Give the backbone structure.
Amino acid sequence: MFKSLLTWVLSSLAISLAHSAPEKQLLWPEGAPGAKGQTEKDQPWVDVYLPEKTKANGAAFVVCPGGGYGGLAADHEGIQPAKFFNSLGVTAFVLHYRLGTSGYHFPIELQDVQRAIRLVRSGAAKYGIDPQRIGVMGFSAGGHLSSMAATLFEEGDPSAKDPIDRVSSRPDVAVPCYPVISMIDDFGHKGSRKNLLGPHDNDDLAKQVSTNLRVTPRTPPCFIFQTDEDTVVPAENAVQFYLALRKNQVPAELHIYRPGPHGVGLMQGDPVLGTWPQHLAAWLRNQAFFSTAARGSVTGSITISGQPVSWGAVAFENEDPNAPRPTARIMRGKFKLDAKNGPATGTQKLTITYSAADVPGLETADGTVTTRTDKGAAISVEIQAGENQVTLDLTPSH
């Protein structure tokens, strides 16, 4: 009986492990161009992490671990981010790209990440992915690789023999994390430059791969994470990239935390630093990365007993957890969101915050009032495609 029980436990464990193991997908099943051999270090691949079917929302990310182009931090900068994305319903592809320490130098690494994005896009039907919702994330040198993917992408060649090469390598969003950006400034990471450029290292080539100099208006929206205490890849890298994005009017969000050495990954467990992945999730949601639902514009007014709210905010939350959750500022009772930044169609629950000074005699701890109900009922509106008008007169809160 014990033997049978042990056999059942081991069998169940094997099935569980087999179910959770990622699929390994070679980027070039017939052999990678420029390969020096047939070993794993010569044939780049992605490990495919699938979300639960009930959570899957059709979005995907290619994840590029760091390691100075000399190694790959494939756990905390690969597997863990992949599983984080899975928790959000996003399919993740962890890229094992070729490295300088194995004799591979620019443009090989760029070719590998471009091929990974094209592989995902061309295989969208296979993986249940929207080909217009594919992001790239990278850490450290992988952050540089993700920034190259965002700035040095190529459109597909419709006449290419290989169907994968017919689709674009442009990511729809990019998330460089404590990224190497400049290869020419003093704050650049010399080890990454040496491994990436190899024997062909020169200032002209280094300038070509300094991605703050390669940003254009076609660069996709970017979310950048960095720590101030990082002395290995200082924050100047992230800041210069952000400023280049601003100059080119590319939507971008930059988060620089004070604590944290280089290479923190998601830093789950840290009550401060570990909040950055949730900021990323909120940014992606409001970029409509998790949902293709139509959005509507909203013009509205909020009053209390007929008097305009002096200052406040109205937050929209769709019944679909993947839908954007925009917030509009209220000024002198009025608020407005255009269709690009407005709420998704469908039922929206509202959270309204306003100044306590708008209610005579009301004192609150922080000088504001936040409510999701009025007269005992939840505040909700129906949003349609196109223009919407929202007018609400609230009962004073005491």
